[in-house]
Amino acid sequence: MPVQFQGRRLLAGLFLLACACTTPDPGPPAQPNVLLVSIDTLRSDHLGAYGYDRDTSPVLDRLAAEGALFESVVASSSWTLPSHTTLLTGLPPELHGVDTSEERLLTEATTLAEVLHERGYATAGFASGPYLRAMYGHDQGFDTYDESTVWPEDDIHRKPTSPQLETLAVNWLDAWHVKEDEKPFFVFLHMWDPHYDFSPPPPYDIMFDPEYEGTVTGDDFAGTDQVHKDMAARDLEHVLALYDGEIRYTDEHLGRILAALERLGVYDDTIVVVTSDHGEEFFEHGKKGHSKGLYDEVVKIPWVVRYPRRIPAGQRIGNQVRSMDVAPTILGLAGIEPPQGFGSGSANPYREHDLSGWITGARKVASFPDLTAFSHETMWAHRVSVQTPKQKLIVIRTPKGRTVEFYDLANDPGEKQDLTAGGPVQGKGRALLGSLRAWDQHWKGRAPLSAPIELDPKHVEQLRALGYVE
């Protein structure tokens, strides 16, 4: 018995010695760094973390495993410009008003970068798509805003941009570490490559379809006649494989940027957020691309957050959320109270929500808010949608009149059966129609935070090459 007692004393002593020699966890920093990554044209259902069967996203999947993943995220729009304006402000398109190629954000609007800059952050943005240019107001609040990878205009849709973007971001982080590493950073990274054209470099071009022997490519996806709704199923499979190759290629470069954070010793002190602006249609509803509809293939996007100082690993949030909730959630995770002028107002029943309390465990799951999602698209027609986890209503207004579609998402997640059948909206559809009218009425009396701009000819040609203008 005495021997056993002495052994316990020896183990206790060794434990105390180990504790004395181990540096205690300092806990969350007072001001964590923030890395916000938007991967353009990224469908959530083409990612492993969301159940996809191809290994398209090992880096993003690992982020999800080490943090939190929102399973049902609805974008505010189905094209880049209004969707990113929402991402960076928390405002819906109905309020910010940046919903055409000829509109820019006014300085009266307060961006996420401006809030963080005022709180002492070093801020840098790196954009690689034409709708993220500074001319649209997305540079507000950034000390550095680099759009050099948007050029040259004539091959933005074919030339990979991830390598240059990675170099720019890593060089900036290295310089920050040398000069300002006592000052937290906010880096916004817009990664373009999953956007069409779908022409990933080797080996990503054959990674998911090495046996294809046909002639169809992902080049000139928006304009080509070879990619159409009646194309052979085998050829469409190849186009999807090319899209998946673009995702894997982008995921690889995202991993290298995260590796730089590890090398600098700041990875765990950085809130890493990865999301997208919209998805992509591959003829699920007869069309290709995006900006021409509001079905789930173009408005369902990923949202993954990693911050081990506050977020337990492996969380999956099944409740529906919106892209307008991203910016306030970042502020919540950083412990920053939104200043007056940021967002649409705390008394607003349709406001954006800070969801940080639920992913950190500070708030009970049962108290998660019911967030109805509204989406908006005005590039080719005026489309608006409203959806809950179980139902969805789409209203399309054209010079010829108005059409309404209603879907039972619980039993028809692919939105294949329009329950209106061309007739009037009935039952639950009428309730959603009422919600949409109330949403529109709420924003109707508020002046949009946008102003018209004149586009230079080179920019117009770039948009035309991408199929955004005629």
How would you summarize what this structure contains?
30% of the residues lie in helices and 18% in strands. The chain has 12 helices and 17 strands.
Helix content: 25-40%
The termini sit apart by 90 Å
Counted by DSSP, the helix tally is 12
Radius of gyration: 23 Å
Q: Quote the average pLDDT.
A: 90
Q: What pattern of helices and strands is seen along the backbone? A: HEHEHHEHEEHEHEEEHEEEHHEEEEHEH
Q: Give me the count of strands.
A: 17
Unreliable stretches (pLDDT < 50, length at least 5) are: 1-24
| Strand percent estimate | 15-25%
Q: Could you describe the largest sheet, including whether it forms a barrel?
A: 9 strands, mixed
Based on CA inertia axes, which overall geometry fits? globular
Which structural class do you get from the secondary structure elements? alpha/beta
3D structure, described in words:
There is one protein chain. With 470 residues, the chain is of the alpha/beta class. It contains 12 helices and 17 strands. The chain has helices at 2-21, 58-66, 80-89, 93-96, 112-118, 162-180, 233-263, 296-299, 326-333, 356-360, 428-444, 457-465, and strands spanning 33-39, 68-74, 103-105, 122-126, 144-146, 185-191, 270-275, 281-282, 288-289, 300-301, 303-306, 315-322, 373-377, 382-387, 391-398, 401-408, 450-452. Strands 1, 2, 4, 5, 6, 7, 10, 11 and 12 form a 9-stranded mixed beta sheet that branches. A 4-stranded antiparallel beta sheet has the order 13-14-15-16, with helices on one face. It has a two-stranded antiparallel ribbon with strand order 3-17. A hairpin with a 5-residue loop joins strand 8 and strand 9. Helix 6 (162-180) runs parallel beside helix 7. The longest helix has 31 residues, at 233-263. It is globular, with a radius of gyration of 23 Å. The protein starts with a helix and ends in a 5-residue tail after the last helix. The model is unreliable at 1-24 (pLDDT under 50).
